[in-house]
Every structure is written in structure tokens, then in C-alpha cells.
Amino acid sequence: MKEGRIIKGISGFYYVSLEDGLYECKGRGILRKDKVKPLVGDWVQVSHLDAEEKTGTLERVLSRKNQLKRPEIANVDQVVIVVSVKNPSPSLNLMDKIIVLAEDLGLEVVLCINKGDLETEKGITQNEIQEIYEPTGYPMIFTSAKGNRGIDDLRNKLKGKVSVFSGPSGVGKSSLLNAIKPGLQLKTGEVSERIQRGKHTTRHTELVSVDQDSWIADTPGFGNLDIDEIQRENLRFYFREFLPHMENCKFTSCLHLKEPKCAVKAQVEEGTISQQRYNHYVQFMTEINEKRRG
Ligand SMILES: Nc1nc2c(ncn2[C@@H]2O[C@H](COP(=O)(O)OP(=O)(O)OP(=O)(O)O)[C@@H](O)[C@H]2O)c(=O)[nH]1
Ligand SMILES: [Zn+2]
Predict the structure, then answer these.
(1) Which of 25, 117, 172, 181 could form a disulfide with 147 if both were Cys (CB 3.0 to 4.6 A apart)?
(2) 91 CA distance to ligand 2 centroid (A)?
(3) ipTM over 0.95
């Protein structure tokens, strides 16, 4: 019995990465009995390995640390959120939303600010973005896929992890992946599910290797951003720069909204917490509340 990771699954076959290559494994009946659907990213036990034919049997799915819905992947370590300084100008609202969803899943966050070559004094600068996000403590990488800048930094950040890239259309996600590993194109656009001659042709997500122990999902993460699935009491924990101040709020249950003597709001006043980040917090809270009322 050996353990490996499923890196793709196609119509009942699971491709499991072992030291000596990729094995095509058929699921065992026990999987159906246990009602586990093996997912890309799953750590599994395999048996009946044929090193020549590169086939085997999938015996058991090991417990997951997390599970993404779209794309459907298990055991993701981190999300690399990509925005560009220009064309399109950065949507920090969307960035904060993805951060919240990632935090809720317990994923690590890496912020990647691309198209540094297009920076001008008019638009938002890398420095301004850095100032806003510095207090969060998230690693920030400044890149130019075109100018081949920051690519080594980004590649280093992927080391030993399973990463999902996320961010608006046109910011350069595919270009960055291509710079990291030529030929590695990110599948973007809509996930197509066409029906051809009565047969379903679905696009499958797979993990592609950057190197031996680093993987990237070939589909961008968080296609549908359903922030209203977040518990309103939890939202405050997903704005990391709030955390050191929370204990100074008058009420331990403080949601940093209308409560008196709120230390978080005091920090916003002082400028140590970004007003914009705080505004997004309030906005997401409103969205969650509105959804609840239906
Ligand atoms: N100037 C400049 N242009 C870039 C850079 N990175 C990507 N681009 C360009 O931006 C456009 C969009 O790049 P993509 O890599 O397709 O962006 P994407 O995020 O994968 O977009 P979707 O596939 O729509 O999700 C392309 O024309 C790229 O050539 C960069 O660092 N600088
Ligand atoms: Zn407070």
C-alpha cells in the first residue's frame, strides 16, 4: 500500500502521483459504500500497483484538511490573489472578498500585484497597495509578467504547496503561470459543460506541477463569490489587522460597527488600519445581513 495525491480524475479513473510517476487508478467499491467521492488534491492509499503499466487500485481517501467548491479540489494550501496596478485597475473590494473566503477555508493568502511595468503616477501605485495591506501581514509580491520581474519570488512562494490562483479577468494570471513554467496555461473563462451527442464533455480541473512538491490548480479559484455563506460573527476574524486591537474594545463581542469604545474604529481614525479595508468590512457585513433577511 502506498500513499499519493490525486492530481486529476477522469470518468472513474484517478491519476495518483507517486515517486516513480503517475498511476491510473480505478476506485474500489468501498469508496462508494463509504460515500466518498475522491477529489483532485486528495491524499489516497493505492494498492495493486503495476509499475510497468502504471496502474493501480484506489483503496482509501485520507481525511481532508479542506475542500474548495469551485474548482472542486481538496487540500489546498494557499490562494494567490492577483490584481494589476493598471488595465484593469485593481479591484481591492474583490481582493478583500477573496481574502475573507480564503480565511474562512483556512487557506494561506499571498497577494500578487502584477503589471508593475504599467505603473504611472496617475493610477494607484504598488506603494499605495503595500501601505493598505502591510498591517495584514500577508506576503506581497510585485510582479511584471511582461517584464519578467518578481517571477522568482512568486515561484518561491509556491514551493511545497498546492496553490490556487484567483483574481479578476485580465490581470495576468495565465501570463504569470506561463512565466513561472512555460507551457503551463491556466484554463480561464467559463467552465464549459457542453452536451455533444448525448455525452457530457466537462472540463476537468487538474493539478499541474511546478516542481516535485509544488502544485497549481489549472482553474482559477472562487469563481462564485458567495460571501453570505460567512457567519457574521466570524467576519471580524478575517480582517487580520483588526485582531491585535480587539482585546481593547469595550465589549468582547464587539463587531466594530456601532458599538461605543471600539478599538478597531479608533485605529481606523488614527490611520493604522486602512479606512478602505474597514469600509469593505462594513460592506460585507451589510451583504451578509441582507442575505439573511432574504
Ligand atoms: N503590461 C503588462 N501586460 C501584461 C502583464 N501580464 C499580463 N499582461 C497582459 O494582460 C492581458 C491579460 O493577461 P492574461 O494572462 O490573459 O490574464 P488572466 O488573468 O489570465 O485573464 P483571464 O483569462 O480573463 O482570467 C494580456 O494581454 C497580457 O499580455 C504585465 O505584467 N504587464
Ligand atoms: Zn470593536
Answers:
(1) 117
(2) 26
(3) yes
Q: Is 85 in the pocket of ligand 1 (CB under 6 A)?
A: no
User: Cα separation of 60 and 30, whole Å?
Assistant: 8
Does residue 139 sit within a domain? yes
What total of structural domains would you count in the chain? 3
Q: Which domain holds residue 13?
A: 2-63
Lookup: cell for 95: 481582493
Single pTM value for the model: 0.92
Same domain, 157 and 49: no
Cell representation of residue 212: 516535485
Mutate which of 82, 94, 115, 175 for ligand 1? The one with the most ligand atoms within 8 Å of its CB, which is 175
| Domain end among 184, 217, 250 | 217
91-128 tens-digit pLDDT: 999 999 999 999 999 999 999 999 999 988 777 888 99
